[in-house]
Fold:
Amino acid sequence: MAQIFHRSTNLLSKASIFGGLFIAIALIYVFATLSTGPYVNDQNVVREQPIPFSHEHHVRGLGIDCRYCHTAVEESAYAGIPSAKTCMSCHSQVWTNAEVLEPLRQAYRTGQPLHWTRVHNLPQYVYFNHSIHVTKGVACTTCHGAVNRMPLMFQQNSLHMTWCLECHRHPENYVGPKMAVFQPEESIKGEDFVKQYHVKNARKLSDCYACHR
Structure:
């Protein structure tokens, strides 16, 4: 039987198969990169707020402790957002006529809370407890970044599962002294603190139930 296709088509078919496979792998890689990248996770994006609150000014400039505003962080899963009354404990005496703080004064007068836009917003299927991380010596800056250097708050880390697991699998790189949890600057970390605070081993910390309940 006479040959229908030229021998060169064998090479062409092989090239198209391998080329298609390469393109498929490249597309998967691009998709995986984009799905975990800053563009999708809103990293480094400053969100619009009712008042342009500066952590840099309040933490670094004035030396206000995190717990003064986030009062529930040591006992609750949620750190808590300061009420207008908390803010007015200072601003009833300083910047009393500043136009930028009018939403705060109105909230205080009416008793209606300010509607802040959450910056670190985990999916509903993820369970995160602030108090247990504080108790185990994980500093605020580990997750929230150097807030003392943020004129306006933004999400520094991806909050993706692989990012969380990096800490859960290697807690010795992230657990430090409890006295330094609320300090804005970095402190020492190590295995000694993991043992001292009875942090669970990597296998238990990496269990699905640790974050998905």
User: Anything to note?
Assistant: The chain has eleven helices and no strands. The chain has a mean pLDDT of 89. The radius of gyration is 25 Å. The longest helix spans residues 8-35.
